[in-house]
Amino acid sequence: MTKIPAWRRYLTFWRTNIAADVDDELRFHTEMRIKDHVARGMTEAEAQRAVTARLGDVDSAKAECVELGHVRATHARQANVIDGLRADVRYAVRSLGRAPAWTAVALLTIALGVGATTTVFSVADALLVRPFSYPNASRVFLARRQFVIGPNTVPVSLPFGISRVWRERATTIEDAALAGSGGQGRLILGSDTATVILGHIDPEFVVFAGSRPIVGHVPRSNEVTEEAGMLLLTEQFWRRQYGASPDVVGKTVRLMDNSSTIAGVLPASFMLPDFRSARADVFQLVPSGAPATGAVLVRLKPGVSPKVATAELEALMKNAQLPDVRPVPMEMPLRLSRPQDWLAIRQPLVMLTGAVGLLLLVACTNVAHLLLARGAGRQRELAVRHALGAARMRLVRQLVTETVVLTLVGGVLAIVVGWIGLRVLGSLRPPSFVALTYVSNGRGVINIAAVLAILSGFAIGLLAAVRTAHRDLGTTLRVGAASTARTGRRLRSSLVVGEVALSGMLLVGALLLIHTLFDLQHTELGFEANGVYALRFPVPRGTTPAAHTAFVRERASVIPDVSGFTVAADAPGTEGWTMIANYETPDHPQKAEAATRGAREYRVEPDYFSFMRMPLIAGRTFDEGSAVRNEVIVSRSLAQTISPDGNIVGRRIRNAVVRSRGSDEPWQTVIGVVPDVVTSLVEGTSSAGFNAHDHGHSHDLYRALAPADTIGPGAVTLIVRLDRGDAAKRLAQVAAGIQTRGPKIDVVNLRERIERSLAEPRFTMRVLVVFALLGVLLAAIGLFGVISYSVGQRTREIGVRMTLGATRRSIARLVVGDGVRLASIGTMLGLIGAASATRIIQHSLYGVSRFDPFSFGVGALLLIVVSIVACVVPTLRATAIDPAIAVRAE
Amino acid sequence: MADANVEVLRGTLDLLILKALSFGSMHGYAVARWIEDVADDVLRIEEGTLYPALHRLETKQWIAAEWGVSENNRRAKYYALTPKGRVQLKVERATWTRFAGAVFAALDASKPQAT
Fold first, then answer.
1. Which of A10, A25, A35 sits opposite B28 (nearest CB)?
2. Is A268 in contact with A234 (CB distance < 8 Å)?
3. Could you give the CA distance from residue B15 to residue A25 in angstroms, rounded to a whole number?
4. How would DSSP label each residue in A476-545?
5. What is the pLDDT of residues A415-466, one digit of tens each?
6. Are A344 and A432 in contact (CB under 8 A)?
7. Do the Cβ atoms of A68 and B75 come within 8 Å?
C-alpha cells in the first residue's frame, strides 16, 4: 500500500463504502439510544420498540445521506487532482530551484529561442500572412504597367481615368478603385498648421476597402472635382490634431495653397495597399479620371484567373484611347500582383522566418538535452522513488510538470524578449523599411509567444520526459546508470552536430555581409566627398535660371570658411535626371528599344571637375563656349560602353531613345572622360526606377550649364566644400538668406547621403548578425549539455583512467577532444551548407564572393573556439573527479 | 407529552447542530441528546431528519466528519465545526434572533388603527 495522508485514505474508503457507512452510523445511533433507555430501566424489547417508533422514515433518510455522500466523494476526487497538481508544481519549482545555474541556462534558451521566433513571426504575420483586411482580399490585385529594361522593371503610371473605364466595362472584375500615397503637405485650418502625410484615393476606394467614415460622409464621385478639393482625415490624425472634434467636418482648409473641404473621418483600420509609404494622415479625394500616379486596385470576380483578367483589362486600356503620361516607344505590359508582393522585405523576411524556425527547433533540442543530461544524473533518484512506490505514471507526470513549469516561465520571458526584439528591429529600421511601422507590438506578440511556447513545451516534453522515465527504472537501480548511457547517444551527438552546422551557416552569412559592408564603406566614390554639401534652390517665378544662378553665386562668395564652391543643376547623390539611354554614334545607329540601362545627366559649370577633385582621364574640360558647341564629358564606364576601342574623345553621340521620340536631339561632341561617380553604394533603382549605376560603374554624362539657359534646370544647386565640420549650421543660415520665401532648403552632406544607401544592407547585416550570434550561443549551450552529460556518464571510467595513471591534462584532452570532434563535424557541414545557402544573399554581396575565404575561415575558427569554451565547465568537472570516490561511486 | 413536541424546522435544526458542535466534536447521537437536553425535551429530534441534516452540512463543508472510536469502544462518526461553519453559526444566529424578534414584536402589537 502506498503512503498517503490519513485523510485521503479516509476518502478512498468513503468512495467504496458510502452506503455501508451510512448504515453503520445509524446503527450506532440506535444502539446508543437503546442503551440509554435500558439504563433508565426499560427492558431491551421495550427500548427497541420505542426507538423504532421514533426513527421515522429511515429509508428515505438513508437514501438522502448516501446521495450526499456521493456528491462529497466527487468533490473530494476533484480536490485530490488539484492538490496533486499543486504538489507537482511545488515539487517542480523546488527541484528547478535546486539547480539554479541549470535552470537559468534552460530558461535563457527557451526565452531566446521563442522570443526571437516571436519577433520574426510577428513581423511575418503582420506583413505576409494577413496584410490587408479588404473584403475578399484573396481576389484583390494591384494593376500595374511596367516596362522592362534589361534586368530591371520600371513601373509606369496607368493612363488617366483607367479605373473608371475598367469599373464600368470590364466583365472579369467586380470593382476597381484608385489609391496611392502622395508625399507630404502642409494643412492649415484656421490658425492651426500641421505637416501631414498625404494619400490620394478616389471615392470608390473607401467602399472597395470595406470601410465607411466614422464621422461625415464620403462624397459621391460627381461631387469631387479638380477645383473643389475634398479631404478625408484618418482617425489617428483627427484625434491627434483636432482632439476628435466632430466640428472639423465641413470646415474649409488650405492644403498646399489650395482650398479644400474636410468631408469626413475614416477609421483607424483604413489602409492603403502600400507598405512602402508611411501611414497617411489625410486622404485627398481625386476624381476617377484624375491624373493621379496611384495604383489601381481591382477585385476579380470569383473563379476568374488573374491571367484572364489581365488580358481583358489590357485590351480595354488599349481601346479606350485615354490620355497617357509617358508615351515611350516600348511595350509596357500590364501586370496583376498582390499588394503584399510589392513588399521590399518580402524575400529577406521569408528567409528569416525559415531561419528562425530552425533556431527554435535548435532551442527546443537544447532544452531537451539539458533535461536529458539532468535526467541522467537523477536516474538513481527516480529509481529510488519508484522503488519506494511512486507509480511510473506519477513520475512521468512530475517530469512533465517540470517541463511545463520551465516552458511557462520561459514563455513569459519570451514575451519580453519578443517585445524587445520588435523594438530593436524598429529602431534599426532603415527609412526605406516603412513596412515595419505597420507591425503591431501588443497582443500579437503575446499570442504568438504563447502558441510557440506551448508547442515548444510539447516538443521538449516529448523529447525528454518520456525518454527519461521510459527506461527500466528497476534495472537502473541495480546496475547503475552506466548501462543506459549508450541509449540515444548517437542521436544526441547528431543533434548537436546539426545545431553547430546551422549556426555555422548563419555565421558565415553574417560574416559575408560584414565583409561586404566593410568593402562598401571604403568604395572609391570617384570624387572627393569629404566636407562637400549641396544646397538646392528652386528657381523662383519671374527669374531666369541664369539670373538665379548668378544670384546664388554672388551670395555664396561671401560665406566664410568656404574652401570653394561651384554651381550646377544637381549634385551626385541628390535627385537629378536619370535618362533611359542608349547612345549612338553616327556610324553605329542604335535602336531605342535596345536600351538596357539609364544614364545620369549632370549640368555643371566649367570649374565643377576641379572643384570635385575629379581628374580628367582623357580630353579636356568645359570652357565658356561648351554649351553652345554641344560639348559633353562622359564617365569612364559610359565611354567604354559607347566605344569599346577606347577612342571616345572627339566622337559625336546622341541618345537614341530621345531621338526616337521625335524630339530634336542634336549630336553632341565628347570632349573628355572623367571617373565614374558612385551615387549609391549598392545596386539600386534610381527615383526614375532604373539603374544608372552598378556597383562602382556608373553611366554619367556631363553637359555644360549654359549661361543663358532658359529651358534648363528648374533649380540651381550650390555645391560647397567646407573646412570645418560645424559649418553645416551656418550653411543653413546662408540658405535661409538666399531663399527668403517658400520651403526650407535642405543642406545635404554628400558623403552622408551616398552612404544612406547602405542603410538596407546594414539592417540585413545587423539582423543576421544577431541571429547568427543567437545560433552560436544556442549551439554552445547544446554542446555544453551533451558534453556535461557524457562527463556525468563517464565519471567511473574517468576515475579508472586516473587510477591507472592518466593525468588531469590527458583527461581534459579527452573531454575537450569529444566536444571539438562534434563541433568540427558540425562546422564542416555548416560550411558546406553555407556554400549553397549563401546563394540567397548573393545579390546583397557587392563584389564579395559568396565563397569568400575570410568569412568561411573566421566562421569556422569562431565555432571551434566557442565549442572549446563550451567544454570548459564539463572539463573542470571531469578533472576534479577524485578517482578514489569515482571508482567506488556505483 | 407528544403534543408538546414541536417539529423542528429545517433551518432551525441546522442552527442547533452548529451550536452543538461549537462545544467540540461529537457524534450524531450526542448531537441529538444535547438538543433534547437543552431544549428540555420540547424540541424532539426525529432521527430521520437529523442525519440528512448532518450530511448536508458536511457537504457544505460547514462541518467536517471523521471516523473515531466512541466511549464504549465502538466505531462512530464524529463531527466537528469547520472555520467556515463557525462563521455560519454567527450568521444564522443573528438571522434567527432578528426573525424571532420580529415575530415577538408582531405578537405584542396592539390592534391596528382604522385608517
1. A25
2. yes
3. 21
4. HHHH-GGGGTTTTHHHHHHHHHHHHHHHHHHHHHHHHHHHHHHHHHT---SS--TTEEEEEEEPPTTS-H
5. 888 888 888 877 777 766 666 666 665 566 777 777 887 787 777 776 665 5
6. yes
7. no
Mean pLDDT is lowest, of A249-258, A368-377, A494-503, A653-662, for: A368-377
Q: Read off the pLDDT band of A632 (50, 70, 90).
A: very high
- DSSP 8-state class, residue A723: S
Cα A215 from Cα A588, distance rounded (Å) = 65
For residue A286, CA distances in Å to A164, A227, A229, A277, A299 come to 12, 11, 8, 19, 20
Q: What distance in Å separates the CA atoms of residue A499 and residue A112, rounded to the nearest whole number?
A: 15
Percent of chain B at pLDDT above 70?
83
The verdict on a CB contact (< 8 Å) between A68 and B46 is no
The torsion angles phi and psi of B111, rounded to 5 degrees, stand at: -65, 135
Who among B49, B58, B76 is closest to A28 (CB)?
Answer: B76
**Which residue type occupies A263?**
A
Say if A330 is an interface residue toward chain B (CB within 8 Å). no
Q: Which three cell numbers stand for residue A366?
A: 537544447
**Residue from B10, B33, B59 to probe the interface with A (highest A Cβ count within 10 Å):** B59
A729 three-state secondary structure: helix
Comparing CA positions, the residue from A526, A599, A576, A565 lying closest to residue A734 is A565
Does the CB of A58 have a partner CB in chain B at under 8 Å?
yes
CA nearest A35 in B: which residue?
Answer: B72
Q: Any idea which residue has 573542470 for its cell? A: A876
Nearest to B47 among A10, A55, A72 (CB): A55
Give the DSSP letter string of B9-38. Answer: PHHHHHHHHHHHHTTS-EEHHHHHHHHHHH
Shortest Cα–Cα distance, A213 to chain B (Å) = 57
Four-point Cα dihedral A816, A819, A825, A827, nearest 10: -90
Q: Is pTM beyond 0.80 here?
A: no
What ranges in B1-115 are assigned the alpha helix state H?
10-21, 28-38, 47-59, 83-108
Q: How confident is the model at residue A478 (pLDDT cuts 50, 70, 90)?
A: very low
Q: What DSSP string runs through A138-187?
A: GGEEEEEEEEEETTEEEEEPPPTTHHHHHHHH-SSEEEEEEEEEEEEEEE
pLDDT band at A479 (very low <50, low <70, confident <90, very high): very low
Q: Which residues does B contribute to its contact with A (CB < 8 Å)? A: 27-29, 32-33, 46-49, 51-52, 55-56, 58-59, 66-67, 70, 72, 74-77
CB-based contact A64 B52, cutoff 8 Å: yes
Task: Give the number of other Cβ atoms within 10 Å of residue A503's Cβ.
Answer: 31
Distances (CA, A) of A743 to A537, A729, A735: 10, 17, 11
Supply the ipTM of this predicted assembly.
Answer: 0.86
The grid coordinates listed for A533 are 554639401
Question: Are the beta carbons of A32 and B29 separated by less than 8 Å?
Answer: yes
Distance from CA of B99 to the nearest CA of A (A): 29
* Torsion of Cα atoms, A463 then A466 then A467 then A472, to 10°: 180
Residue A25 to residue B70, Cβ atoms within 8 A: no
